[in-house]
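ERR on first pass: missing label on line 2. Operator R.T. fixed the label and resubmitted. Corrected input:
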Amino acid sequence: MLTFGYTPDGPGATEPTALAALAFLAERDFDGARGACTWLAQHQNRDGSLGVCEGQADPCWPTSLAILAWETAIVRRPWPGVEGLRPAVRAALEWLTTTKGESLRRNPQFGHDTTLVGWPWVAGTHSWIEPTAFAVMALRATGNAEHPRCQQAIRLLIDRQLSTGGCNYGNTFVLGQELLPHTLPSAISLLALARFNIDDPRIEKSLKWLHEAVEHEHGTPSLCFGLLALAAHDRPHPKTNALIAAAEHRVSKRRASGYQLALLSHAALGASSPLVPSPQTARIA
Amino acid sequence: MSTAAPQSAEVDVRRAIDAGVPLAQPVPRSASRSDISRRALIVGGGLAAAGLIGYPLIQQLRRAKTPVFVARNQRYDGPLRDTIRDGLLSVGLDPATLRGKRVLLKPNLVEPTQVAPQITTHPAVVLAAIEVFRTWGAEVKVGEAPGHVRDTEMVLYNSGFREALDDAGVEFADLNYEEVRFVENAGRASNLPGLFFPRSIIEADLVVSMPKMKTHHWAGYTASMKNLYGILPGIKYGWPKNVLHFAGIPETVFDINATVGKTIAIVDGIVGMEGDGPIMGNPKPLGVLVIGANVAAVDATVGRLMRIDPRQVEYLQLAADRIGPIAERRIEQRGEAWQPLASSFEILDAPHLQKFRKRQAELVS
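pass 2 clean. output:
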């Protein structure tokens, strides 16, 4: 079994391990992929979910990324018996489709549609961009893009785009003031929305914003997801290679975490990363 | 919304805090109340005796005043190290008690952006505090669990802390992703049975809350107590830490502070924020540092400097005389008097903030 954490000495965690499994699959390192997929399967809770890290059975928002890793492995058939992951996928999907964020009555204090239901970071709280985007990616990868929950989640992600482009961590307006965009939630939401047929001018604005923002980004997660999102929308950043090289240089100055290395691998893979959805269309209800 | 914890919990908190107990010791979930108290007393007793932490019983009984130090005319390129050293000594910190102790400095790096440095604690203030505590023989690190963004590398670069901490050779603890431990909620103002604290908080002998002086569009204003939202790990609470919002902002601010215990404060009010804080407000230069060994007393003084009545702030209502005093008569001003330095911080014109605006107008007139 193989596991990776957010920090070099931190506990094994679901998100970094799932991202590593996907990178191993893309690089045809099947031993690595199998080790990571097995770790994920062994850390699945009885209800089908996966907790954030070793020793923490909840919250369970990274379950979507485990689904994505397992499903990608099953589709690519890299080792005999990979089909044995199917029950894990089924159980995780069952958990995912029955889990939802708390909707709130519309309130003029908030600019976004608080009645739309996506996924929360933690059970019993509101729906937020990143867990919702990861859920959309998992549902699409497993052929559930038309699922009503996925359709509503897509509407939520579009609704949370700022009028000037990009996303804040979750809100759009609070008390009449538009909030600041951030690269990571902007990138992850755009990655989830890539290759759907969405005719909404906010997507174009967000892509333009991200194209500018990513060039000045120093955080590995923000930079890598930013580059991936642009690649997924078929407009790879012209400075992709230089930006990745600079990030590798920064990361190499101190001990790198599995999370950072997996993300850099995906950024280098670009449109061929398994995080980038295959061409597909979906109706927006 | 209840403004008081249940009576039984209140008694426990009072006892613990009176004894200067750092409640965030690694307490197994199965430990009995007597086990917790005994361990906490052993660990916390020395620091309390040194006047470092808590709100000692004897002070309450005598109704002694709690000292808060205010320094004026401060600049980020000025002799901040001297000011912080003098301030800490002035409020009763004994450097001898810090030799070999683990001190965690907790700035506010909630949502850094290079275009609005007034959102976050200035690195110069933290660097000066590092120097002071190192000089006194403490083992210092800086830690934060940014509340709105989970890319900590981005946080460090955009706030200027990456370069500053590298230059100083100081470790940064990413509190969002460290190992966590469940600690029983000592405050019990909210319905949360306990809180998950990162390893660095559990292991610290002293936590120094180093907030930015800012208005807050839900709570009124934010200083050293609200800043401790940033010790709770996003990996357990989300980005934002919506679990705390659902459990009640004032209640959870109180609970976190009551449970951590071992906290002192150095507030960056050199350039604060007014208007739509804590993120979208405008810079407000005030030129002050506020320092104290009791977070409630410090935050009450911060409110007065902003011309916001601390008694109107719900988490300070909860904290009053349980974590520390907020009444002016119970706080001894050291350094500069706050009155000539006070300046009205603009407050957003929103219905739920009218109580602050109305009282501010009364204070000014």
